[in-house]
Amino acid sequence: MIVSYYKDKRLDSVDEVMCKLKKHLFKLAAMFKFDVLLHSDKLFNNIYEGCQIKASRFEEDIELSNTLKKLSCKYTFMEPKKIKDDDKETYLRIKE
């Protein structure tokens, strides 16, 4: 059940169109998964690994967050992340 506040301005209103869309997307995802699995295990594993990388982007990097707080306004949010990914030595130096 998908609730759409914007449709009726009520928190308890069910949006039938979005419910159908969600069911359709789940069906397509399942069909895609099994089609890829039947075609190639290697391809499936590559897609799966990519999905895991994408999902891990939503996890907070506590060390990076603390470094950013300590540095206050010297860097934008993305700068320390790029430095950490590209150049560990520079990141460790600015972290201290």
Architecture overview:
The chain has 96 residues and is mainly alpha-helical. Helices cover 74% and strands 0% of the residues. The chain starts with a helix and ends with a helix.
Features:
mainly alpha, 96 residues
Topology of helices and strands:
Layout: H1 5-8, H2 16-39, H3 41-56, H4 62-71, H5 78-86, H6 88-95
Helix pairs in contact: 5-6
Q: What Rg do the Cα atoms give?
A: 21 Å
| pLDDT < 50 runs, ≥5 residues | none
The helix/strand order is HHHHHH
Number of helices: 6
- Would you report the number of β strands? 0
User: Helix proportion of residues, in percent?
Assistant: over 70%
**Overall average pLDDT:** 85
N-C termini distance: 49 Å
Tell the overall outline: flat
The share of residues in extended strands comes to under 5%
Class based on secondary structure composition and strand pairing: mainly alpha
